[in-house]
């Protein structure tokens, strides 16, 4: 620790007086400098060089985490479960905000006496990593190398890419001053993690929550895999081709025959009119859905014939469609009728089915139903035993079509395939209207940024319907910040029915299913799955993807499977990465308490992602009726925007890398350092989207500079603080007591905001206290006593006592946000203050004594501030006129018109008013008549009483030692300084 020099040598006061008598013309203002107790510290004005910063990061992060984790003194614990970032590419500003917010909470809990458990993690599997890993190779080979490389080769390349990304990201996270167990970090690619995940899958299957079905799923044609809802993003301006198509009715049901009777000539064909934005799915049509309770009518079109449509949608079709009188009926009357698809050459008659989801808000009131390409369609047709039909391959091309449509095979359904379907319908006269620029909201694959399709394919599903009620119930005692997060998570959970957890890629955790070669049915008994998982635990997941003609080693050692290795094949599906990360709670210590983790904190998008997958997998394997969510608190943050409010993206060129904030951007903002980056995070209202740019960062830089200057002043003023003064109000100046009162109040307000994770309010409260109560008030007032009073006098020690309390509190409240600043500061802090500790975290949170609080100050301080404001206005008038050079060089005449609280306070603090106003003399209610006109004055109504202040140049002289205008003669010491030097 740096040892500071204390200046004790003072010149003989009588020699100084003799000198001033001989040569009064010489400036004496600096001759007494050595007799003053001026601040002294080697605490730097700016943060240090890179090697100094690196040491501070290590000391304030790694060493502190290790110290507390190995300590036996903590009675409470705090577990923060890290939502694993994706191990792909470098970090962006959102990553920095996420990790720093977590670190602020962990550091605050540590200061509150809790042992903190924080194990960072990484999400390592999935398509983006696989694609990124193969991108370079594909570019060199000028083709998709995934089509020529073996699964084992792809996995090796993807693993290497993920591990490199983890190391790169971890280096950055640690550079941000984030403390945690980096050595024992968790990764979803580790065998131990994968086995935990597989056991959750097995348990869910054992409980009947997982099954394999052939049903529609979201499908990425670019990435050739099934997608979960959480992997979609919606394009609000997607352009589709909307078609109105006629389906000819083949037969009328008995009810409809009675209603229509002979009102329609036998030579006129009756049709139904449907409207669709996916004409390519008309090939897979199996039914038309109607609303049984809705009213339907028959309309006539001169060129196209007769149609059945919903009465509520008739006018939307246009004036060319004329209603035929007395031909109305309900959807229920249509149910026993049949129709024929205009694309089908066979004679198959298709049914009308009742569905409550058919509404009158859009379309014709009759809905084209393709069970292979729609979720509602699938459920409706399954209810009526209608087979699913989806003649589309993994790349979104038509396949396995009937003979008359064979020429469409190989065409992409969202492009040329759909065009050909429309062409066929037009040739048959089945297209009534066409809108090729229909704009609407449509789901896109968030990876490829391309529109998806809905396609029926065999997949593994988790039954959310059986879990979600218990899941929502478990959220009742969970604390959300902001509180709206609870509603979001509940809504997203309630809206789920089934979760498609299988993916058609190789870089991931395999679904441990073995299939019969002939029937392609999986072995789903628990003993078989147990055996497969035990083999994966021994051999690793890579072994599962090895090409094998005989898979005997994966079959149980039972007579049933003896020598049957060639009759079975291993499944190629991997698990959804949300299932990967969603089972990360298995890494937590179950003995922690009712909840495995105290905190989950991620972006708002995780209500439909990790928060939900964690919740669902945990509830699924918990005891029925006693299921607990894995988290006690859920905290969410928004996304980063530029200063114009636009979302940051590389394509727009408006991103800011965290390193740019740390190192500065020439001409835009200065280097903020690690603490500046952290201060920006803490200053932001992270519950909303956060804007950042040059103006914001410059303001943060100024705030950080102010805090460093404040701490430097405190350290310098305490350089000789060795004899601590015990707190006794009798020994303290009222201004000191006010400062202690304000400090305690501020510290309590800060703690309240820390407790509810409102860090921007923490920063606002600290900045307000620093700027308003310290820099602009207390520090200015006490400099005279601190510098010029006798060295070991009670009044000077009282000031140092207050400054030591301010420093202790500031080291405490700033440490969660700017740990490098406070770590550096404590190295220069006197032992009287740091108690011999080498870190603010070892000192713990500072709780000030209750004696510092004085209820009277709550009423008095606002009134004093208002009086001071009037005085400063009067002083400013004199400065503008250049009659007054500084506040010290003027006297104040203060007039209070009336009695009451204001006059009582002024009387109470009368002897301290010159210090409060930082002026030479103060006269209250002077004899001189105000009516004669006060030259430099200001006034205001304060608590119903008029207060007038006048500033006038003082008649006293400047003391060459303390620079106060309290000397009776020019170039002579004031009484206080003369006595001080006489006793030296």
TrEMBL record:
GO CC terms in record: mitochondrion
Location (main, coarse): mitochondrion
Catalysed reaction equations from the record: tRNA(Ile) + L-isoleucine + ATP = L-isoleucyl-tRNA(Ile) + AMP + diphosphate
Gene Ontology MF terms: aminoacyl-tRNA deacylase activity; ATP binding; isoleucine-tRNA ligase activity; tRNA binding
Keywords carried by this UniProt record: Aminoacyl-tRNA synthetase, ATP-binding, Ligase, Nucleotide-binding, Protein biosynthesis
Domain Aminoacyl-tRNA synthetase class Ia: 63-692
Domain called Methionyl/Valyl/Leucyl/Isoleucyl-tRNA synthetase anticodon-binding: residue spans: 738-887
UniProt EC number: 6.1.1.5
Location within or outside the cell: Mitochondrion
Gene Ontology biological process: isoleucyl-tRNA aminoacylation; mitochondrial translation
Signal peptide: none
One Pfam family recorded for the sequence: tRNA-synt_1
Keyword match Methyltransferase: no
NCBIfam families on file: ileS
Family, per entry: Belongs to the class-I aminoacyl-tRNA synthetase family.
Protein name (record): Isoleucine--tRNA ligase, mitochondrial
């Amino acid at each position: 620790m740096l040892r500071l020099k204390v200046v004790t040598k003072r010149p003989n006061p009588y020699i100084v007086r003799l000198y001033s008598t001989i040569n009064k013309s010489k400036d004496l203002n600096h001759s007494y400098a050595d007799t003053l107790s001026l601040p002294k510290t080697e605490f730097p004005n700016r943060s240090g060089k890179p090697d100094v910063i690196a040491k501070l990061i290590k000391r304030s992060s790694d060493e502190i985490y290790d110290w507390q984790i190995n300590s036996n003194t903590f009675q409470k614990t705090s577990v923060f479960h890290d939502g694993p970032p994706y191990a792909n590419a470098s970090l962006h500003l959102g990553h920095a905000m996420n990790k720093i917010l977590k670190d602020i909470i962990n550091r605050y809990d540590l200061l509150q006496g809790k042992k903190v458990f924080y194990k960072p993690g990484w999400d390592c599997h999935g398509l983006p990593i696989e694609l990124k890993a193969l991108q370079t190779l594909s570019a060199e080979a000028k083709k998709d190398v995934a089509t020529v490389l073996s699964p084992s080769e792809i996995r090796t390349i993807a693993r290497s890419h993920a591990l490199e990304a983890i190391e790169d990201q971890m280096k950055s996270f640690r550079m941000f001053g984030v403390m945690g167990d980096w050595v024992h970090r968790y990764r979803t690619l580790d065998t131990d993690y994968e086995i935990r995940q597989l056991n959750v899958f097995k348990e869910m299957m054992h409980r009947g929550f997982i099954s394999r079905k052939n049903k529609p799923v979201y499908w990425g044609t670019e990435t050739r895999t099934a997608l979960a809802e959480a992997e979609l993003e919606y394009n609000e301006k997607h352009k589709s081709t909307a078609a109105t198509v006629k389906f000819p009715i083949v037969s009328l049901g008995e009810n409809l025959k009675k209603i229509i009777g002979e009102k329609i000539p036998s030579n006129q064909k009756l049709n139904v009119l449907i409207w669709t934005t996916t004409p390519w799915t008309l090939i897979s049509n199996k039914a038309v859905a109607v609303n049984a309770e809705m009213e339907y009518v028959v309309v006539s079109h001169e060129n196209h014939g007769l149609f059945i449509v919903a009465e509520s949608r008739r006018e939307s079709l246009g004036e060319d469609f004329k209603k035929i009188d007395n031909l109305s009926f309900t959807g229920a009357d249509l149910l026993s009728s049949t129709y024929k698809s205009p694309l089908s050459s066979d004679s198959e008659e298709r049914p009308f089915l009742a569905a409550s989801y058919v509404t009158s808000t859009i379309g014709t009131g009759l809905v084209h139903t393709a069970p292979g390409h729609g979720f509602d369609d699938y459920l409706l047709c399954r209810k009526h035993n209608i087979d699913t039909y989806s003649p589309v391959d993994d790349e979104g091309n038509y396949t396995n079509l009937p003979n008359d449509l064979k020429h469409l095979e190989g065409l992409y359904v969202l492009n040329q395939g759909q065009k050909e379907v429309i062409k066929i319908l037009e040739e048959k006269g089945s297209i009534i209207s066409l809108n090729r620029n229909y704009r609407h909201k449509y789901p896109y694959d968030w990876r490829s940024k391309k529109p998806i399709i809905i396609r029926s394919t065999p997949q593994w599903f988790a039954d959310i319907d059986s879990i979600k009620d218990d899941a929502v119930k478990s959220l009742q005692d969970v604390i959300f910040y902001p509180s709206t997060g609870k509603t979001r998570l509940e809504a997203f959970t309630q809206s789920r029915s089934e979760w498609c957890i299988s993916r058609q890629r190789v870089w991931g955790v395999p679904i441990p299913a073995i299939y019969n070669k002939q029937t392609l049915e999986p072995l789903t008994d628990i003993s078989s799955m147990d055996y497969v998982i035990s083999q994966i635990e021994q051999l690793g997941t890579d072994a599962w993807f090895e090409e094998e003609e005989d898979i005997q080693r994966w079959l149980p050692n039972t007579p049933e499977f003896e020598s049957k290795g060639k009759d079975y094949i291993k499944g190629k599906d991997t698990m959804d990465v949300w299932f990967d990360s969603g089972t990360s709670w298995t890494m937590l210590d179950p003995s922690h308490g009712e909840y495995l983790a105290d905190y989950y904190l991620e972006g708002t998008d995780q209500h439909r992602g990790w928060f939900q997958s964690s919740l669902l997998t945990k509830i699924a394997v918990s005891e029925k009726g006693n299921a607990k969510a894995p988290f006690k608190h859920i905290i969410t943050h928004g996304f980063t925007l530029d200063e114009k409010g636009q979302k940051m993206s590389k394509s727009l060129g408006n991103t800011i890398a965290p390193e740019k904030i740390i190192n500065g951007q020439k001409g835009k903002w200065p280097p903020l350092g690690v603490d500046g980056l952290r201060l920006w995070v803490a200053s932001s209202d992270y519950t909303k989207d956060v804007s950042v740019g040059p103006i914001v960062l410059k303001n943060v830089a100024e705030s950080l500079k102010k805090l460093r200057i404040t701490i430097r002043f405190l350290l310098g003023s305490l350089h000789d603080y060795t004899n601590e003064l015990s707190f006794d109000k009798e020994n303290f100046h009222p201004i000191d007591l006010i400062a202690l009162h304000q400090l305690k109040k501020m510290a309590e307000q800060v703690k309240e905001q820390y407790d509810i994770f409102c860090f921007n309010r923490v920063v606002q409260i600290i900045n307000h206290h620093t700027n308003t109560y310290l820099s602009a008030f207390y520090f200015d007032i006490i400099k005279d006593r601190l510098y010029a009073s006798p060295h070991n006098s009670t009044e000077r020690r009282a000031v140092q006592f207050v400054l030591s309390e301010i420093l202790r509190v500031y080291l405490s409240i700033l440490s969660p946000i700017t740990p490098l600043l406070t770590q550096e500061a404590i190295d220069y802090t006197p032992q009287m203050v740091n108690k011999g500790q080498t870190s603010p975290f070892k000192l713990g949170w500072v709780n000030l004594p209750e004696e510092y609080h004085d209820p009277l100050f709550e009423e008095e301080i606002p009134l004093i501030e208002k009086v001071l404001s009037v005085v400063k206005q009067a002083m400013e008038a004199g400065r503008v006129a250049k009659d007054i050079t500084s506040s010290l060089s003027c006297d104040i005449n203060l007039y209070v018109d009336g009695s009451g609280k204001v006059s009582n306070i002024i009387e109470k603090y009368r002897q301290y008013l010159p210090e409060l106003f930082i002026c030479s003399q103060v006269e209250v209610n002077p004899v001189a008549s105000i009516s004669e006109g006060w030259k430099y004055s200001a006034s205001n109504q304060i608590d119903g009483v008029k207060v007038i202040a006048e500033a006038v140049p003082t008649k006293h002289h400047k003391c060459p030692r303390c620079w106060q205008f309290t000397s009776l003669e020019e170039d002579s010491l004031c009484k206080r300084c003369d006595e001080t030097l006489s006793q030296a």
